[in-house]
């Protein structure tokens, strides 16, 4: 996404009445409570080191050294500092999956991220590479908001309304392998937060409508902010209501059919967060991720993916001030990195905003996974079945071929 000056106040997003209702996936503060759906109750088979073990850092280093080139550790931008220090490469989920595929000599790919990312890495790497997720409980609340059964039912609703034939599915990278496979089977493509505009341009050259899964905000922000559609061109399909809560007429009139999913971390930022930081820090630039609500994105100065956020700060002049609307582990690292260059980086909201499932990957789990691999035991392997992989790969290849 490109930069743009803040626009006039934007009316509340359609579907917001739904968004603000309490959800079982409400944001969780780090270390307090658990997410019953995305943090699946999974035990580690074996002895997990104690978090208070003073030798954890040394144990991780030693296990990695024993494994040598056989292991490649991927660290998503939102991971904890204690984990990211052991990553061979850092980045967003798609970059990491491609980095793993480019290292065929690495037999084991340890993915410090969440479940759907490890699935994507398994899809894009060779069959002899085994992908390991140090804690199987690290899910993603957004990806979990669209199940294969719900999406199949939605397609039946679109078929019934007579619009399925003219609808192209576009699924965000942050979705399960099942949803990616659905997308591939129905002629659609995957997108990232960096190429969502190009994916939608392509999809509208193939059909009249787009079913955008599972993040309603990325879909709406791209359609309205980048492509000039109106909010009325978008409808929200709610999988918990009969027929998605939409009439056949509404489906026929819509250009963008947005799945009712969102990120519980980025959904945390509000227009008040933007107004508050502008009042507290005069002259501050507000830079947010497109998973944020539409009114937040419309009020921001700059909008873009995590890679875009990092590049923007790298290019920023000394003395500039930035409020960042994305996950806190990343913002904290950016603040520390850019402070010596005289750039002030603050978190957009006043309250703590970690991704609770990303934080499931901690040093004890990483040590356990690395030591197990060094002992010749593959633990927590993530393996996508061949049929799902075939169609998910098709959707991913369409993304790679986007003009
Ligand atoms: S930050 Fe949001 S989209 Fe990313 S893993 Fe966490 S819940 Fe999922």
Description of the structure:
The structure is a single chain. This protein has 403 residues and is α/β, with parallel strands linked by helices. The protein folds into three domains: 56-140 and 358-385, NadA-like (Rossmann fold, 3-Layer(aba) Sandwich); 143-263, NadA-like (Rossmann fold, 3-Layer(aba) Sandwich); 266-347, Rossmann fold (3-Layer(aba) Sandwich). It is built from 16 helices and 13 strands. The strands form three sheets. It has a five-stranded parallel sheet with strand order 6-5-7-9-8, sandwiched between helices. A four-stranded parallel sheet has the order 2-1-3-4, with helices on both faces. The protein has a four-stranded parallel sheet with strand order 11-10-12-13, sandwiched between helices. The chain is globular. Iron/sulfur cluster binds at residues 78, 114, 140-142, 174, 263-265, 327, 355, 357-358. Iron/sulfur cluster binds next to loops. It catalyses: iminosuccinate + dihydroxyacetone phosphate = quinolinate + phosphate + 2 H2O + H(+). Residues 32-54 are annotated as: Disordered. Belongs to the quinolinate synthase family. Type 3 subfamily. This is Quinolinate synthase.
Tags for this model:
single chain, five-stranded parallel sheet, 403 residues, alpha/beta, Rossmann fold, disordered N terminus, binds iron/sulfur cluster, Quinolinate synthase, 38% helix, globular, four-stranded parallel sheet, 3 domains
- Outline: globular
Number of helices: 16
Number of domains: 3
Rg, nearest Å: 21 Å
Percentage of residues in DSSP E strands: 5-15%
- Strand segment tally: 13
CATH homologous superfamily placement of the largest domain: NadA-like
Give the SSE order as H and E letters.
HHEHEHEHEHEHEHEHEHEHEHEHEHEHH
Q: Kindly name the structural category.
A: alpha/beta
Please tell me the CATH architecture of the largest domain by its name.
3-Layer(aba) Sandwich
Fraction of residues in helix: 25-40%
Largest sheet: 5 strands, parallel
N- to C-terminal distance: 16 Å
Q: Which regions are unreliable across 5 or more consecutive residues at pLDDT < 50?
A: 1-36
* CATH classification, class level of the largest domain: Alpha Beta
Biggest sheet: strand arrangement: 6-5-7-9-8
Q: Give the cofactors and ligands.
A: iron/sulfur cluster
- What's the CATH topology name of the largest domain? Rossmann fold
Mean of residue pLDDT values: 90
């Amino acid at each position: 996404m490109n930069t743009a000056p803040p626009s006039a106040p934007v009316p509340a997003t359609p579907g917001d009445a739904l968004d603000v209702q309490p959800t079982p996936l409400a944001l969780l503060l780090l270390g307090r409570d658990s997410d019953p759906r995305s943090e699946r109750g999974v035990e580690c088979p074996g002895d997990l080191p104690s978090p208070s073990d003073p030798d954890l850092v040394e144990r991780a280093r030693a296990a990695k050294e024993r494994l040598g080139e056989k292991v490649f550790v991927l660290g998503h931008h939102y991971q904890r500092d204690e984990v990211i220090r052991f990553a061979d490469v850092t980045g967003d989920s798609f970059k990491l999956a491609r980095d793993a595929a480019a290292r065929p000599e690495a037999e084991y790919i340890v993915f410090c991220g969440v479940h759907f990312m490890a699935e994507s890495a398994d899809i894009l790497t060779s069959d002899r590479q085994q992908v390991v997720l140090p804690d199987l409980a690290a899910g993603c609340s957004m990806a979990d908001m669209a199940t294969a059964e719900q999406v199949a039912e939605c397609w039946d609703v679109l078929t019934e309304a007579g619009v399925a034939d003219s609808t192209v599915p576009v699924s965000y990278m942050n979705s399960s392998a099942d949803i990616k496979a659905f997308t591939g089977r129905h002629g659609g493509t995957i997108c990232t937060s960096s190429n969502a505009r190009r994916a939608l341009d392509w999809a509208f050259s193939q059909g009249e409508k787009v079913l955008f899964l599972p993040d309603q905000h990325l879909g709406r922000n791209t359609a309205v902010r980048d492509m000039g559609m109106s909010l009325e061109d978008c409808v929200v399909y709610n999988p918990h209501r009969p027929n998605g809560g939409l009439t056949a007429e509404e489906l026929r009139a819509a250009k963008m059919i947005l799945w009712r999913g969102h990120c519980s971390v980025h959904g945390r930022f509000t227009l008040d967060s933007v107004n508050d930081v502008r009042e507290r820090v005069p002259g501050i630039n507000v830079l947010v991720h497109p998973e944020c609500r539409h009114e937040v994105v419309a009020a921001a100065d700059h909008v873009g993916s995590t890679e875009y956020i990092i590049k923007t700060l790298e290019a920023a002049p000394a003395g500039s001030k930035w409020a960042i609307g994305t996950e806190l582990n990343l913002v904290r690292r950016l603040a520390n990195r850019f402070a010596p260059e005289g750039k002030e980086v603050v978190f957009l909201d006043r309250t703590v905003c970690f991704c609770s499932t990303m934080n499931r990957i901690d040093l004890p789990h990483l040590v356990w996974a690395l030591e197990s691999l060094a002992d010749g035991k593959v633990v927590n392997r993530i393996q996508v079945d061949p049929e799902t992989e075939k169609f998910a790969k098709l959707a991913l290849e369409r993304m790679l071929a986007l003009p």
